[in-house]
Specification:
alpha/beta, 5 strands, 22% strand, globular
């Protein structure tokens, strides 16, 4: 049985990238990083967090847990998948729908990279990330 381990983390611009792996030997590092994320300081500083790793290592689980913690801390949160968000924003009238992706203090987008995006879907994804830049966390 594998346990979640954090191989490393690095701040690139305003994005905290957390690399996840199935390695039990990194559990002490994992706990420290998760505890830091659970402080929700990344939301207050509008820093984005990206969980990278193979399927089954806990990216969605951590995202949901941080979302629930943010809700408990009084922050607004919206959880979606990349496919759902882009399909909703590609259907007219998208201007009425984009607000739900811009308004919350924390937007959790799951399943990024599982499907190839059309150029139009990539464009609306970029628009959402760009509009949230330095104002709210993703």
């Amino acid at each position: 049985m594998y346990q979640l381990g954090i191989v490393g983390d690095d701040v690139v611009g305003d994005v905290l990238v957390v690399l996840l792996a199935e390695r039990g030997e990194e559990l002490a590092s994992a706990k420290a990083t998760v505890d830091d994320l659970a402080s929700l300081a990344f939301i207050d500083s509008a820093t984005n967090v990206v969980f990278l790793g193979p399927p089954g290592v806990g990216k969605t689980h951590l995202s949901v847990a941080l979302g629930l913690e943010a809700l408990s801390g009084g922050h607004s949160v919206y959880f979606t998948t990349m496919a759902k968000m882009t399909s909703e924003l590609l259907a007219p009238p998208w201007r009425q729908r984009i607000r739900k992706y811009l308004a919350p203090k924390l937007l959790v987008i799951d399943e990024i990279g599982y499907r190839q995006l059309s150029s139009q879907a990539a464009s609306v994804f970029f628009d959402v990330i760009s509009a949230r830049y330095e104002t709210a966390s993703v």
